[in-house]
Amino acid sequence: MSVKTQGTELYVVDPANDAIIKVTCPTAITGLTGSRTQVDDSCLEDIAASFIGGRVQPGTMAVPINTDPAEPSHVRLHEIFRSGEKFNFAIGWGDFTGGVAPGPVPTGLDSAGEFIFPSTRSWLSGNAYVADYDFNFNADDIVRSTVTFQLSGFPEWEPKA
Length: 161
Prior knowledge:
CATH class: Mainly Beta
Largest sheet: 6 strands, antiparallel
CATH topology: Pnp Oxidase, Chain A
Radius of gyration: 19 Å
Shape: globular
Distance between the termini: 16 Å
Number of helices: 1
Number of strands: 10
Strand content: 35-45%
CATH architecture: Roll
């Protein structure tokens, strides 16, 4: 079974006050990468190298947006970029019952500052900082940006119940 991307929503926790911010109008969310380093565990008598998996090196997540200076979530993301602060983020999948956005939203934060999710949709969450926030002004177009999140640690995946 496939899951449509329609209805996908992105949330970030504001590092200044722990408010949950819904990022308005992302046009894609790509990346969420991480690759495992390799550790050489070869012995001198081995004729070929042998490796085991090492630590995961978190990658980046790119979030293109249709940039709007009147949109508070776009302005606040740029302020968070300038501050360099880390924050938690969550991606709510479009697999919720009804399938018409907005979908179920995080219901708050627990005592550790982690999202509390309703079980009626799938979630990907993690920790990051904004590594880049570019502005693109092209002829006969709208202003667009790509917000690049540098991931820290493993993203967590919580499939819906």
